[in-house]
Amino acid sequence: MKAYDVIVIGAGVVGAATARELSRRQGRFLVVEKALDVCEGTSKANSAIVHAGFDAEPGTVKAKMNVRGNEKMDKLSQELDVPFQRVGAFVVCFSQEELPKLQELYDRGVQNGVTDMELLTGDQARALEPHLSQEVAGALLAKTSGIVCPFELTLGLAESAAKNGVAFSFDTQVTGVEPGEQGWVVHTSQGDFSARAVVNAAGVFSDQVHNWVCEEKLHITPRRGEYCLLDHTAGNHVSHTVFQLPGKYGKGVLVSPTVHGNLLLGPTAKDIGDPEDTATTAAGLQEVLEKSALGVKDIPTRQVITSFAGLRAHEDGDDFVLGESAPGFFDAAGIESPGLTSAPAIGEYLAELITEKLGLSENPAFDPLRKGVPKVKDLPVEERAALLRKDPAYGQIVCRCEEISYGEIRDAIHGILGAKTLDGIKRRTRAGMGRCQGGFCSPRVMDLLSQELGLDLTQIRKSGNDAQIVLEKTRGEG
């Protein structure tokens, strides 16, 4: 049985952030993930917002982690080479009677330590964001809010951790956790592992992992949110993220630019029983379109190129469950919005607790810098020409919509924690994320995965093991 100092269960953004912070220390660290890649759960399907921190109830763990995570994002995005923009956010209301609720949010933000907020009239808000609806009576402007790519942030954190010595075991389903001689034994589909400490970052399954170990039980409700994504041609429709006043189930339907130039609408919020049900519905998507139009006018909905749904892990106590829940067992449970924003702070917090618990020492070889797959189309002309002279593969365009080359896809396959699936290529390079949604490039990307990994086409998956694309090959005569 392989022994580690710390095992992290889950390779979403929280697990990856915790692993990276642990890699600042000397030790044997392992991340186990049931999927074939990082970022396959909640972290892959969310609003991609870095929240300012005015929404969380003052004094909650959410409030603390949100504000700290927001503060860390500028430096972190530079170190990890991931796109991040502080575009600012509006929270809008539609009547004079609702203006006091904006004031409440402003006051809550002040209590939480949020800076650069301003209350505006409807006309003042429209002067800054012309497509705001005429129905908008007032707005809270939070200038520290931003947008990020959730795929690239999670990948950046995970690859940085791996670069600094953290081991990753994919396709590894955790089936139980129980006390062992040196701390804990983690039972998995790939065998048993022992660890002095365990971190539960299992997303919508974090209550199950917690309840294996702790007498005081948790209950997670999967909360499904549906989204519509619009083409680049709609990306400039708004320049800020536009929220509506929060309700019982969260921050409501938003309209937001993305760091890649698209426009994002959503999410809905529906509590469901199945922690793996990410299906979209006609009713849910219609709700997204109708509610988004309340705050922002003239949204070019004919430019929708795809829809998707993600699950949030809502814990009954409506707060993050963080810390040592049993000796050497550390929870990061109930991580819903603002979980993406909070992840860097959660990782920092848990790593500090574990360092104190285990007496870990500093890793003098820790390197904070990580480079992502180079975006060839974004390079200056001279740099791009020099790269093409050195390696013509970077000039062989595979994905026409996003202008992604064979060289970039090859780098994604053979990089640290390299891609092994169609979705893995998509998240690292954006091949397949354009207007045709992979209709043109998917067969070629599959061929490249087959060639570079030495796999038969029937072994290529879209995402998990059950997502087979080619069931069998037939050969013609001649």
From TrEMBL:
<dbReference type="Pfam" id="PF01266">
    <property type="entry name" value="DAO"/>
</dbReference>
<feature type="domain" description="FAD dependent oxidoreductase">
    <location>
        <begin position="5"/>
        <end position="353"/>
    </location>
</feature>
<dbReference type="InterPro" id="IPR007419">
    <property type="entry name" value="BFD-like_2Fe2S-bd_dom"/>
</dbReference>
<dbReference type="InterPro" id="IPR041854">
    <property type="entry name" value="BFD-like_2Fe2S-bd_dom_sf"/>
</dbReference>
<dbReference type="InterPro" id="IPR036188">
    <property type="entry name" value="FAD/NAD-bd_sf"/>
</dbReference>
<dbReference type="InterPro" id="IPR006076">
    <property type="entry name" value="FAD-dep_OxRdtase"/>
</dbReference>
<dbReference type="Pfam" id="PF04324">
    <property type="entry name" value="Fer2_BFD"/>
</dbReference>
<protein>
    <submittedName>
        <fullName>NAD(P)/FAD-dependent oxidoreductase</fullName>
    </submittedName>
</protein>
<dbReference type="InterPro" id="IPR052745">
    <property type="entry name" value="G3P_Oxidase/Oxidoreductase"/>
</dbReference>
<feature type="domain" description="BFD-like [2Fe-2S]-binding">
    <location>
        <begin position="397"/>
        <end position="450"/>
    </location>
</feature>
